[in-house]
Amino acid sequence: MPGLPGRYHATCNAQHPRWTDRPVVNFFFLPASVDLDECISRLYKKELLAESVIEAICAKTKELLMRESNVVHVRAPITVVGDIHGQFFDLIEIFKIGGFCPDTNYLFLGDYVDRGMFSVETISLLVCLKLRYPNRVHLIRGNHESRGVTQSYGFYTECSRKYGNANVWHYFTDMFDFLTLSVVINDQIFCVHGGLSPSIHSIDQIKIIDRFREIPHEGPMADLVWSDPDPERDEFSLSPRGAGYTFGAQVVKKFLAVNNMNHILRAHQLCQEGYQVLYDDRLSTVWSAPNYCYRCGNMASVLEVSDTGERFFNVFAAAPENDQHKDLQPGGDKQADSGALPDYFL
Amino acid sequence: MRPPAPPEPDVAQATKLHTQGSFTITSRKLPISKAGPISAMESRLHIPIPEMIFGDNLVSVVHRPSGWSVSFSAEPALDLVNKTGENMLQVAHAKDWTSSRENSSAVGIREVVRPFDWTYSTSYRGTEVRGRDGKGLEASGKQIPLELLKRRDPILFFDEVMLYESELDDNGISLVSVKLRVMEQRMLLLCRQFMRVDGVLVRVRDTRVYVDFVKDEVIREYTAKEDKFDNVKKNLMMTGLGPDAVTVAMRDSNQIANLLPVVEHQLESIDLVA
User: Which residues in chain A are contacts of B158 at CB distance < 8 A?
Assistant: First the structure.
């Protein structure tokens, strides 16, 4: 494990060399009534877990995540997944294409919730998989894993609707504060939700961020989950919105050189082809929500990193099960659903 | 290794045509644009393109005898977005953000690249092509006959087509979409921009095109409405909605549009009888 341990914790492997794929209940004492394998098989069928079960699982997940560094080191082979945004059927499609846990190692780059119709089922399943296979499933925080954003973009409303109150939203969003910020694969590939920050030159500077909090509006933690590449620029630029950065080719080159790595892998931006490769193959965007918001018609992909570090985009389209739920699309800003029924608008 | 390319969209298959009286109405719906067409559009327009850009989508209304038409597509709508950065709105937390940056290592970065109206607000009213006789829409006092449109005449052709949408990096939403319904004697088209910057401002800009197939007459009405975010929220609360319902309503232009004060209104019409 290179670098210094984080402020509150060391990396999990260093502290717990004996962690394997055994169920975490052996270590964390989930209530006896909670059987993780049963939870997972129910969630694969898109059944909701009881509120008390979510509470226990989120509490245990916090304990587990607390031990992770802000920069988690993993080994390939691993399959990297971009934004999912509550598109549960497409998440299942990813497992069908890329292999189920624990046969395939997974790194998820964040944005599990909001916008899609099944954020609760999606995050419930991912959290259970993380607890069950802590060294084979890795979850990074995206800008949507936040109290503020989920109140405006659907997760809060979905929790309240499906459980009759906002408790489950509180359990999940409290747990989000513990998600790690970045992962490094084979000491070569730096993985993050959004991108780079002008305050971060070396990954050691990520390790000292106090991440156990709501995502702030500014600073390195915000930049990691928010920033975007701008292929037409060399350096950092300010967004015209008045908050946030874009980063250019030289920034990427310098960061990789300083940290002795060869690639940056991030999500956060929709692309029609499901992925985008920039800066002379130094940076990739992976997008894993096909037909985003059930109306963009875009492809999606997962990025498979082989044990030797080769990268392959596995491209896929929306799962057929989505069609059955088209008519249930909530109104709100999703007004131009392709299955729109005639109405007497004025 | 190259991944499989996504299937080419079939333009002909994605296009629907409907003929009513002397008019031909077309709608075309395709997936969001690919990286290549997006960067081509970006170099034509000189602004960053919104992340959901339906560059191939189209709605058009053509009067066959005269050749007059009005059509709606994303690129001309985006071309009307302010590209100078004048009167730019800022997100609700921009002030905090700027002041806290003063003390950080990022303080050297001052340049805002390509300033433009990042809310993608547009005054787009459709792209008009004058008839062979040179006639076009002109300012007029003719109103769209709402009473006739409230009748439940059978809808012969209906569609809803997205032009573009941006989530404004989760600071709100800006979207432009077109709806149309064709009945036997008349049709209504509504091109609506809905723009909300959380904590700051809400805008609804509607262009309605009304076609009378009996009189071969077209009326175009443009209505721009806007209000401060907090006012809209307050007004929604006054209608008796609870906090959760207000949150949902703030995302729904249909629930908000009637609460916003009108800031601009324009009526035009054209008589296409030969």
Answer: 340-343
Active-site position among A138, A144, A193, A263: A144
**Contact assignment for B30 to A297 by CB distance below 8 Å:** yes
Pick the CATH number of A52-319 from 3.30.70.270, 3.40.50.720, 3.60.21.10, 3.40.1280.10: 3.60.21.10
Min mean pLDDT across A69-73, A262-266, A291-295, B192-196 is at A291-295
How is residue A136 written in tokens? 């084979």
B241 touches chain A (CB under 8 A): no
Q: Burial letters for A19-36: b for 16+ Cβ neighbours within 10 Å, e otherwise? A: eeeeebbeeeebeeebeb
If one counts every other C-beta atom within 10 angstroms of the C-beta of residue A160, the result is 16
> Which residues are within 8 A (CB) of A80 and not within 5 positions of it... i.e. 6 or more apart?
A106, A107, A108, A109, A185, A191, A265, A286, A302, A303, A304, A305
Cα B119–B122–B125 angle (5° rounding)?
155
Query: Mean pLDDT of all residues in chain B?
Result: 90
Do the Cβ atoms of A219 and B104 come within 8 Å? yes
Beta-carbon separation of B170 and A143 below 8 A: yes
Contact A143 B162 (CB under 8 A): no
Structural domain spans, chain B: 15-271
For chain A, the structural domain boundaries read 52-319
> Which of B94, B175, B253 is facing A243, going by the closest CB pair?
B94
Chain segment B32-51, per-residue pLDDT in tens: 999 999 999 999 999 889 99
- Could you say which of A239, A240, A345 has the minimum Cβ distance to residue B190? A345
Q: What is the pLDDT of residues A101-123, one digit of tens each?
A: 999 999 999 999 999 999 999 99
